[in-house]
Amino acid sequence: MPRYRLTVDTGGTFSDFVLLEEDTGKHRILKVPSTPDDPGRAVLDGLDVLEAEGIAASDIVFFSHGTTVATNALLEEKGADVGLVVTEGFTGIYETMEQSRPYGPAVFDLGYQKPSLLAPGRRTGEAAERIAADGSVREPLDEDSVKELIKRFEKEGVEAVAVCLLFAFMNDAHERRIKEMLVEAHPEWWVSTSCELLPQIREYFRLSTVVINAYVSPILGRYVKKLEGELDERKVAPEARFTMQSNGGSAPFASTAGRAVGTILSGPAGGVTAGSALSRDTGSLNIITFDMGGTSTDVALIQNGEPVITDRSKIDGRDIAIPMLDITTVAAGGGTISRVDAYGALHVGPASAGAVPGPACYLRGGTQPTTTDCNVVLGYLDSGSLLGGAMRIDRSLAEEAVRTGLADPLGMDLLEAAEGHVKIIDVQMGEAVKSISTERGFDLREFALVPFGGAGPLHACRIAKDLGLAKVVIPAYPGAFSALGLLMSDVKHDYLRSRLSDIATVDPASMAELFEDLRAQGEQQLRAEGFDLDQMAFRYYADLRYAGQGYENPVPLTGLPQTPEDVAAIRGAFDVIHEQCHGHSAPGQPVEVVNYRVEAYGRVPSVELAAVEEATGPVTDAVVGTREAYFSEVSGTPFPVNVFQREKLRAGHSFEGPALIDQYDSTTVVCPGQRVTVDTLGNLIVENS
After folding, report:
1. Which CATH number fits domain 80-220: 3.90.320, 1.10.3470, 1.10.8, 3.40.1360?
2. Please, are residues 184 and 47 in contact by the beta-carbon 8 Å criterion?
3. The pTM is what?
4. Which CATH class is domain 266-332+425-487?
5. Read out DSSP for 277-288?
6. In the prediction, which pLDDT does 564 show?
7. Which residues sit opposite 30 in a β-bridge?
8. CATH-assigned architecture of domain 4-73+229-246+259-263
9. Which of 190, 220, 539, 591 is a Cys-bridge partner for 260, taking CB atoms 3.0 to 4.6 Å apart?
10. How open is the CA angle 175-177-182, to the nearest 5 degrees?
């Protein structure tokens, strides 16, 4: 019997499926409408479609899921009622946050307000205890104070409790005892402790992270439990079910809920993971991923085949300090709305029509002009249908929305108004690309742009041309690229311990012992998840800083230190990394070790995708007609442009722009002066001719 792997990436408008047949490497994609009221229902809807096509659910032996459940709970503030336990005298840490405004526009916003507290003051309590900075106990835990907190939380009706005590990363005894007491009193409460989730320095960031984890864990936990029961009924992959994590790896269902904060970037992370694989497969080791959906665009930088990881992120103004892919998001997507204000100025975004009512052309009740409507007016999108005919597109509604919302108020031609919207949103997305590249010292001429998401290929070629990127690499199935990334994700767990010390005085044996201890934790976790030792891999990092700095740089280790010379080499590597990241270094200054990190990987079987057939006929065999499209750099009026069917293109085919390439899950717009070549994996390589 055939064996299949299935991945599902839930989006705001569609849920994307990728089904891979293990023996042949053949895969197909499927899109079904998302069900925001119950995201798991879309998963079952997709399984129903596959079963109707003869794919038995019991033949699916691997299942991986990218979900926005935790993300939406945080953004919409629909998480659990959280209680917070802190050290006596330190209730103000959460409320004061960093004691300053964020960087950017907020600095100048006279009406700026901090994000609301997920654990407000009435649900924040003090435990009488105190651990010193060296881990010694200055004041023993007063268990009576914890009992009083439990009574208080009972009255407040909490569902979850976050525990974050001073210096718990040096001595976790008090946090663990408080958790025991909470669970004994209320086994139904979801309890998150900082010593288990994030045992590192910087009190506020540790506290913020553990509160967010407590806030979203019950929501994600209930979702995963319900979905797992439904998958059990259908006998889908009983031994291999995974959830995508923000760190670029996956985690088994069983360990997902306890670290729900780790899924905040679950959806975008899949695309970055797939981008890393594509960069290695194509030899374009430096790429920028460009994921454009209905409401936003996510960009990330991959250097030498490896994505950039950060341990400090903000989501909707709230700080998260666990390792996450460094993804930048801008409010620009297919549903982005444009308007003309009372003074005649054009504004594009950040509001979006979303899935409902959506763009006007979708016939769901939308009336305001959106990016998608403008692309229809310009002739870039098929005015008849999308998704192989599954979704109707009404050009007249798009024209009406653009005319009444943009062209008439601006006193412009319909096409000029539509192009104006597209140019502005391209600039907005281009600024996001520059924010992770040129503004950090990278040369865009050394990078390829990899667009995906349903709308990515519509805009990427023009953006790449404007910014001077070397080329554009459009994957075979851009609309389901994030779901494809879930097939390629190994299980990954991060382990960390803060131990602040001068590197000049660090004992190599002590350093190696710390790393070995963290590695042992990773090995134990992976064994519990069914991995053998030969399926595991480990990476070691030391976070270093110059004495007095308020930030660190991770230094990868080639091996565990054994001699003082090994420690000196780590210190030397830090100088080089600091120079690369910040433009300067100080080899003569003292350096401190702040954190020890270990990444533990459980290797899943590699994916071998079927290659695209070599071309045996001319590229004109893939031309299915023409479409009147507007390219102002060529003509002041629309003109016929060749339309290629992506599924008919073969390896070795090549052609010049302007051109439009239609496929089931996306449309690619190739600009004049660009040349397209199809590689052996079916990617479109777009370069300036």
Report:
1. 3.40.1360
2. no
3. 0.87
4. alpha beta
5. HHHHHHS--SEE
6. 93
7. 17
8. 2-Layer Sandwich (3.30)
9. 220
10. 95
Taking domain 491-602, whether its CATH number is 3.40.50 is answered by no
Q: What tokens appear for 460 in the block?
A: 């990427």
The segment(s) of the chain belonging to CATH 3.40.1360 are 80-220
pLDDT in tens, 43-60: 999 999 999 999 999 999
Per DSSP (E only), the strands in 503-603 are 536-546, 553-556, 591-602
Helices 508-528 & 564-582, crossing angle to 10 degrees? 80
Instruction: Assess whether pLDDT exceeds 70 at residue 310.
Output: yes
Among candidates 194, 189, 153, 149, which has minimal Cα distance to 171? Answer: 194
Could you read off the pLDDT of 384-403 as tens digits, one per residue? 767 666 678 899 999 999 99
- CB neighbour list of residue 657: distance below 8 Å, 6 or more residues apart: 461, 670, 671, 672, 673, 674, 675, 676, 686, 689
pLDDT tens readout for residues 242-299: 999 999 999 998 888 889 999 988 878 999 999 998 898 888 889 999 999 887 889 9
* Omega of the bond leading into 350 within 30 degrees of 0 (cis): yes
Q: Boundaries of CATH 3.30.420.40 in the chain?
A: 4-73+229-246+259-263, 266-332+425-487
Give the pLDDT of residue 537: 95
Give the pLDDT confidence score for residue 332 in this predicted structure.
87
Q: Among all chains, which residue has been given the structure tokens 């259908």?
A: 234
